[in-house]
Design goal:
Layout lengths: L1 E6 L6 H10 L4 E3 H8 L5 H10 L12 H8 L3 H28 L4 E5 L14 E6 L2 H12 L3 H9 L4 H6 L3 E4 L8 H10 L6
Parallel strand pairs: 1-3, 1-4, 2-3, 4-5
Helix pairs in contact: 2-5, 3-5, 6-7
Length: 200
């Protein structure tokens, strides 16, 4: 089974590209969705995060207060590294189990949508990596609109991530997402054709 790793920095628009892969019939594993499901109490992952960062990261109902945790980790590289070392382990266990299910069902190709693909070492389980990039100013606008945060917070998030040059150097394919969704279609089709998922 062909595993396509889909990644890119925050605000680049990976979700739009993931939906196009889905439109071609490929199942998409969304790392963020897996992560959020793993945090639903009772949760071993949430327990470990609480031990690491303190009970202040919990909301009154015992769930994770993502805004509080984000405020801690995106302003401190060491804290972000601790967060990733915990969460990546749990996410990858679940992803490997899902990929095994797909293989057993005879699925030809699947997409693993993961913003932290390289940090988790998950690129090693992928046959090819696609990075979605976008202009910095556009990414700031998208993050502010999506997450309801100010420009300074959006910039902190961007600056905590790998550079565009890193993504270009470590990816087989790069999709520039600066205009419309329609403009992404030829790039997605080319990838699927060149990797043998679609007939040439």
């Amino acid at each position: 089974m062909l595993v396509i790793g889909l990644t890119g920095p925050s605000g680049a628009g990976k979700g739009e590209v993931a939906r196009l892969f889905e439109a071609y019939g490929l199942p998409v594993i969304n790392a963020d969705k897996v992560y959020h499901e793993l945090l639903l109490p009772p949760s071993s992952c949430l327990d470990e995060l609480t031990q690491c960062f303190g009970r202040e990261i919990l909301a009154s109902d015992g769930s994770l207060d993502r805004r509080v945790l984000s405020g801690i980790v995106f302003s401190d590289p060491a804290s972000l590294q601790r967060l990733n070392s915990i969460t990546h382990r749990y996410v990858m266990e679940k992803v490997q189990a899902l990929l095994t299910q797909f293989r057993s069902k005879g699925v030809r190709a699947a997409v693993f949508d993961a913003p932290q693909l390289f940090e988790a070492g998950a690129h090693r389980i992928c046959n090819t990596v696609v990075s979605v990039l976008a202009d910095r100013s556009l990414r700031i606008e998208r993050i502010m609109a999506r997450d309801g945060i100010d420009a300074e917070s959006a910039l902190r998030r961007i600056d905590s991530q790998k550079s565009d040059d890193y993504f270009r150097k470590h990816s087989e394919y790069v999709i520039e997402n600066n205009t419309s969704v329609e403009s992404l279609l030829p790039a997605v089709r080319r990838i699927l054709t060149e990797t043998g998922v679609l007939p040439s």
